[in-house]
Amino acid sequence: MTGKSIEIYYNISDIPDITDRSAFSSEALEFRNAAMEHVENALLAGDLGEWDGADIGETEVNFGFSVEDFEQAEAVVKEAVAGTRFANIREIVRNEYSEEDLAEMTGDAKPLGLWGLLSLLLFRRLPKRFRDN
Predict the structure, then answer these.
(1) Domain holding 104: CATH number?
(2) What's the predicted TM-score (pTM) here?
(3) How many structural domains is the chain composed of?
């Protein structure tokens, strides 16, 4: 079995209408959450993807979705953000992994892990990769 995901990246310096462009900016975090929800609604409407995680760093924000079809998911993302404050995507990264890859990534770590716990606390839901299928 193969899993696919896309990750959407924004540079904090390019986010419109925010005044705090410092590392880990709360305004950038709010932007990321709003962009993530906007994109998620578009993907869910087309049954093309499901939220899988999010991050914020010193210079960027990102979030990802589990998808079945890269081309369709990316087309929906680009259409959903066109003409909105979320249009300035830096890049969309495709990831493809097998069950063996996933097993190697998790190793002997606890099932939820730090990122799963943070996702649960910040978003009050678990990314798809941590849920039972």
Answers:
(1) 3.30.70.1510
(2) 0.76
(3) 1
Domain residue limits at 42: 2-130
Per-residue pLDDT 10s for the chain (133 aa) are 578 999 999 999 999 999 999 888 999 999 999 999 999 999 999 999 999 999 998 999 999 999 999 999 999 999 999 999 999 999 999 999 877 766 665 555 444 555 555 555 555 555 555 554 4
In sequence order, what are the residues at sequence separation of 6 or more whose Cβ sits closer than 8 angstroms to the Cβ of residue 7? 62, 63, 64, 92, 93, 95
